[in-house]
Amino acid sequence: MLIYGFQSILSWVQLALGVYAAVMLIDAAMRREDAYRAASKQTKGMWLIFLAIATALLFILPFMSFLPIIGIIAVIVYTVDVRPALREVSGGSGPRRGGSSSDGPYGPYNGGR
Is the dihedral of CA 47, 53, 56, 62 positive or negative? Predict the structure, then answer.
């Protein structure tokens, strides 16, 4: 009974990771090609291939085999290294710079005056 529960948890984790890899693949596809070159992060085509293979491996092969773990590593590298660099280069939704501590999302807060 315990083994079946563990397998069920692993299958849900694998499904979640596969969906996350697919979302990162879509994110990579929507970025501009020149942003990859400007951020010095290989090419857009290379990342699309890596993320497509990672997504396919997560949906096809068992989670605890060797290849899906390599795919997870590729998705993690894209998430923590490439994606923030692309956002910075293309002026994405990063933190605002130069505002005061009383600035809100629509401009400065004047205290109801």
Answer: negative
